[in-house]
Amino acid sequence: MKRALRLAFRSAVYAAAAAFYALLLGGLCGPPPALARWLTARDAVLSEPPRYIVVLGGAGIPSEPGLIRAYYGAEFGRATPHAELIVALPADGDVETSSVGRMRDELALRGIARERIRLETAGRNTHAQAVNVARLLGPAAGEEPTLIVTSPYHARRALLCFRKAGFRRLGAAPAENADNEADPGPYVRPRYTFWSALHFELYLARELLALAVYKCRGWI
């Protein structure tokens, strides 16, 4: 019994040490580029203007992801004036005063006519949102070019969920912060590169776990 406990304890220590060194290596080197490109769905590009632009609300408004998604959704909406925009975000209580209503207001503030915006307020995960958007738009929408606006590392899971829901012509628009355009010079290095890489590692690990769960449930 004692031997088994010692073995279990030693295994736990080794696993913790391996996880620590993996995090340290990831912080120094950043996430694997090929995996990051796959998760951010850089290859999912529409070859034609979208008929529908689906803005996944994420944490809603006010929040950094919600504001960035609204910004990109409005940018694409203004570039394709014939497209219809769908905001997918659960509504807690009154739609007008909830995050989904504020997200619609943000799109309107950025130049999108309110009559172009539809709301999906019931889905509480990406799978449910994809199914509900498909039901909201009808079966014919599956053949229309559809652009999904979401956070970068969430793009692949969103694409797979919407494809499972019947959408066949999909593109992804990862909503991310733009790089600093100022040239700091050759002797200036970013101060927080290591911590930023660790932060992205957490996003990556969470998405890989979510993809595994969605796959097991038959959602992708």
Could you please describe the fold and organization of this structure?
The chain has helices at residues 2-29, 33-39, 64-79, 99-109, 126-137, 155-164, 193-216; strands spanning 52-56, 84-88, 117-120, 146-150, 170-174. By secondary structure, the chain is of the alpha/beta class. The chain has a domain at 43-174: HUPs (Rossmann fold, 3-Layer(aba) Sandwich). Helix 6 (155-164) links the parallel strand 4 and strand 5 (170-174). Helix 1 (2-29) crosses helix 7 (193-216).
Secondary-structure topology with pairs:
Elements: H1 2-29, H2 33-39, E1 52-56, H3 64-79, E2 84-88, H4 99-109, E3 117-120, H5 126-137, E4 146-150, H6 155-164, E5 170-174, H7 193-216
Parallel strand pairs: 1-2, 1-4, 2-3, 4-5
Helix pairs in contact: 1-7, 3-4, 5-6
Keywords:
Rossmann fold; five-stranded parallel beta sheet; 7 helices; alpha/beta; 49% helix; 220 residues
Order of helices and strands: HHEHEHEHEHEH
> Low-confidence parts, pLDDT < 50 over ≥5 residues?
none
Biggest pleated sheet = 5 strands, parallel
Number of strands: 5
C-alpha Rg, in Å?
A: 20 Å
**Could you tell me how far the N terminus lies from the C terminus, measured between alpha carbons in angstroms?**
44 Å
The first-level CATH class of the domain at 43-174 is given as Alpha Beta
Question: What general form does the structure show?
Answer: globular
CATH topology of the domain at 43-174: Rossmann fold
Helix/strand-derived category reads alpha/beta
Spatial order of the strands forming the largest sheet? 3-2-1-4-5
